[in-house]
Specification:
The protein is an alpha+beta fold. The protein is built from six helices and eight strands; from the N terminus they run ββαααβββαβαββα. The radius of gyration is 16 Å and the shape is globular.
Length: 191
């Protein structure tokens, strides 16, 4: 079984063990208010079906859903997903973190490792991501990872409260490789 390992995290394909964590994550109103990665609303028991979809995606090579766990102590902290179009050589990145784990850099650390998997393991040429314009934390994660803002989609009826502004980001393979090269030359100094 594929496992991605970072300094503080362990990422592995979602499975039945993650049902409780996924259900709690998707049911949390704070997560639903900021996330595009998790189905909303997720009815009771909906985690089983969502995890099964992720597992089918692994088998088909069309999506890769990872459970994110802390290394020590081992605790479920969220999910990161990658929806892949091999023919187009691209994928869409998504992530959601449990609110009690916000502000610790887990989303950045997990997404960075999944980007490595996307570009170096799956040999993709481009990864995109989208977030709500008001989600400052997600915007910061994408900026730290080197994503560029490519588009902003405004609600159809501005001021009506009937829609949310969306931001669309992109990262090309060349940009990713350039950032990896920069990181290698900083002698371990934070960027």
């Amino acid at each position: 079984m594929l496992q991605l390992i970072t300094e503080r995290l362990r990422l592995r394909p979602l499975d039945a063990e993650d049902e409780g964590g996924v259900q709690a994550l998707a049911a949390d109103e704070r997560v639903a208010a900021h996330s595009l990665s998790m189905p909303d609303p997720l009815p009771d028991g909906g985690a089983v079906a969502w995890i099964a979809e992720q597992q089918q995606g692994w088998e088909a090579g069309t999506s890769y859903g990872f459970a994110i766990y802390t290394a020590e102590p081992r605790a479920f902290v969220g999910v990161v997903t990658l929806k892949v179009s091999q023919r187009a050589g691209r994928a869409e990145l998504g992530y959601a973190i449990m609110p009690d784990a916000w502000g610790r850099g887990y989303a950045t650390e997990a997404a960075r490792e999944v980007l490595r998997f996307a570009f170096e393991g799956l040999h993709l040429r481009r990864v995109t991501a989208a977030c709500l314009a008001g989600n400052r934390a997600s915007i910061r994660v994408l900026e730290k990872l080197g994503f560029r803002l490519e588009a902003r989609l405004e609600p159809e009826e501005p001021g009506s409260g009937s829609g949310l502004s969306m931001l669309f980001y992109g990262l090309m393979l060349e940009e990713y490789l350039g950032r990896r090269g920069e990181a290698a030359h900083t002698d371990g100094q934070p960027q």
